[in-house]
Specification:
single chain, mainly alpha, Arc Repressor Mutant, subunit A, two-stranded parallel sheet, 46% helix, globular, DNA-binding
Length: 106
DNA sequence: GGAATGACGATAA
DNA sequence: ATTATCGCCATTC
């Protein structure tokens, strides 16, 4: 076991919890915001511990909903006012990024 | 130690 | 738009 692993998990969950309603963040964004790890690492955390946070506000880089939970996530996001474009979320409109951190998009 | 796997991402065809 | 392939990173077998 590794204490640092729990630390990373906690950081991911904390960041996901502060995503505003109707907004979404990508796995890669979260990894970039935390400064280490990777998209797969974040996805693993969500898969295991995402049940305690608004996991539906986390999507793939293209606005794709989490596989196996598309129905659920889509329903929730629509309810929160997220902008959809077919089966995906418009990251340009509903994408969110912590203002206190540098934006990877430039 | 090596192969397989996964709620990913980017690129090529 | 869709499929295929590779890279990434930690976990699991």
């Amino acid at each position: 076991m590794d204490g640092a692993a729990d630390d990373f998990t906690e950081a991911v969950l904390d960041l996901v919890e502060r995503i505003p309603p109707g907004r979404v963040m990508a796995y890669g964004w979260i990894a970039a915001a935390l400064g280490h790890g990777g998209p797969r690492r974040v996805a693993r955390v969500m898969s295991a511990y995402g049940g305690g946070v608004p996991w539906w506000r986390v999507t793939t880089g293209g606005g794709r909903l989490p596989p196996g939970h598309e129905e659920e996530a889509r329903r929730r996001l629509l309810s929160e006012g997220a902008v959809f474009r077919g089966p995906r979320v418009l990251m340009a409109a509903s994408g969110w990024y912590p203002e206190e951190l540098p934006d990877p998009r430039g």
